[in-house]
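Can't paste images in this forum, so I'm doing it all in text. The chain is below; anyone willing to post the predicted structure tokens underneath?
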Amino acid sequence: MTVLIWGSTWIAIKYQIDSTDPMVSVAYRFILASVILIVWCKIFKLNLKFKKTEYIYMALQGATLFGFNYLFIYSGELYLTSGLAAILFSTILIMNVINGFIFLGTPIDKKIIAGAFLGLTGIILVFRPEISSFSADKNGLTGIAMVLLGTLLASFGNILSARNQTRNLPVVQTNAIGMGFGGLTMFILSIILNKEIGLVTTGSYLGALLYLAVFGSIAGFGFYLSLIGRIGPGRAAYSTLVFPLVALAISTLWEGYIWTFSSVTGMILILAGNLIIIKRKQIHIPEAEKVSASDKVPEAGAAAQ
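Text version of the structure:
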């Protein structure tokens, strides 16, 4: 669901970038998502009261994952093609592995490194034409620095989410508070930087805004951050390599994108890397041991089921 949703959000974003400053659109997107989530929590009586320390961590997650990362990535894309930006953002996979080791003590899994190597090689092949058009001038290097900084902040947001979930902070409430903080931060910055903050009322813009808030933010981040809690930030981040393939598949139907030998090869490498990362090691248990174990502790077997 994460891959399918985020692979389709680019269409909605295209309806916004020509109408409003990206920072303002990001602010509206996450403020709206936060309001919807808070209303949801109120309707279903989900707890929104936490310790002050936990609110701080929620705010940090919001600032890094729903705020400043978008600011730097969108700013960097003013100087880079979307394909090169996608490649740079895909390095979040490596960043999550390293940051998980540093901040969470998560062991570095060789399978993740091997899968990441295949995946990153694949994404480079998919967007090879856009790489070849890159100019290493001052603006190009500035764009790379901004996108990498935004990616690093997003990685910190991933690690903070993993930390919050280990403290039993629920994803829905954490996102409700974090998205509100991130969106308001972007809105305040928009005012400080004299951005045009008027809300465009065309049907296409409002429809795109609603789609990005409900699906791209509430559902997309809800699935993705839950994925982080289940399989860890390293494996979960591999979705950033897969969802560009969905975007290209949609572009094939929507815009007539033509697949080349390079892009098909890249797609195969990305999917192969994904299989390496998510495949779990199978542990063989002899039948005699299974019978013996079930005879000794039937309750444990039932609990595992």
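DSSP finds 16 helices and no strands in the chain. Residues 2-304 form one domain.
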